[in-house]
Amino acid sequence: MKSSQYRKKQLQFLASILCCSPAEIEYLCENIESYYGNWVEEKKDKDTGKVKTYPDGTSKKRIIRPSYSRLKQIQKSIKINILSKIELPENIQGGVKKKSNITNAKAHQGNKYQFATDLQDFFPSVTHKQIFKLFLDLGYSNHIAHWLTKLTSIEFELPQGTPTSTAIANLVFRDTDQKLIALCKSNQITYTRFVDDLTFSAYKNFRPLTNEILDIVRSSGFKISYRKTKYEGDQTLTGIRVFNNYIDAPDKIKEKAKAEGSDASLLHKPYTTYLGNIRMTNRNLKAGTLTIRK
């Protein structure tokens, strides 16, 4: 089969997977910049809600690149028909159905020693070459991997704000996850990851292993946010306060939930609902009694 015929067959195959026309794929790949927004968002501290700043006082920012129109629809199709079918380790809590920052924190309840760190600029640090390799590793041809990479990246990196970005980031980081899981399993350490937040905990002191943990991440080409790297007990993990026998919301969430409770005009009370979801994990109703899970 001639190369042009093979390319055409591959394009038709991808179009059938994504439920669109071959012409749409080619048009979007050629005009990809027209289907992305671009705005700058100030980074806020999860505990205080205040804008993060550099030592000179300037605010820290992130670039949000949401996709629009037909590209967003096709990205949703890529997520549903390709990315979501790939199994992830149970340790992954972000971008996975029925998992959240609450289930992530809950996994570490009761562990005296906790180590948390954060991946710096996680999405933009995932390059188009890594995305291309991901699709090749999933068994797709060079042609299909090229089109899928074009449809899910912009300016040679993974954008923040699209339907496919979290799923791709999870899959690109999967090999690093497996190395961390192996290390933690052999040392009785609980490990979870909520997107770019990595959390480790154990009953016994494992501080001597923290450098080895960070080395695994760094050797994979990812950067660590050292400001967010902490080794201590009863700390805030993915926005949740984690204690020995329970988890709870930080004070700012409880204050906002209290304010909602005193406002009779509100039809929806998101902070109250969120607080209830967190505290519900601490309850176990048996024979009409309320007990604390340990």
TrEMBL record:
<dbReference type="Pfam" id="PF00078">
    <property type="entry name" value="RVT_1"/>
</dbReference>
<keyword id="KW-0808">Transferase</keyword>
<keyword id="KW-0548">Nucleotidyltransferase</keyword>
<dbReference type="GO" id="GO:0003964">
    <property type="term" value="F:RNA-directed DNA polymerase activity"/>
</dbReference>
<feature type="domain" description="Reverse transcriptase">
    <location>
        <begin position="1"/>
        <end position="242"/>
    </location>
</feature>
<protein>
    <recommendedName>
        <fullName>RNA-directed DNA polymerase</fullName>
        <ecNumber>2.7.7.49</ecNumber>
    </recommendedName>
</protein>
<dbReference type="GO" id="GO:0003723">
    <property type="term" value="F:RNA binding"/>
</dbReference>
<comment type="similarity">
    <text>Belongs to the bacterial reverse transcriptase family.</text>
</comment>
<keyword id="KW-0695">RNA-directed DNA polymerase</keyword>
<dbReference type="GO" id="GO:0046872">
    <property type="term" value="F:metal ion binding"/>
</dbReference>
<dbReference type="InterPro" id="IPR000123">
    <property type="entry name" value="Reverse_transcriptase_msDNA"/>
</dbReference>
<dbReference type="InterPro" id="IPR000477">
    <property type="entry name" value="RT_dom"/>
</dbReference>
<dbReference type="InterPro" id="IPR051083">
    <property type="entry name" value="GrpII_Intron_Splice-Mob/Def"/>
</dbReference>
<keyword id="KW-0460">Magnesium</keyword>
<keyword id="KW-0479">Metal-binding</keyword>
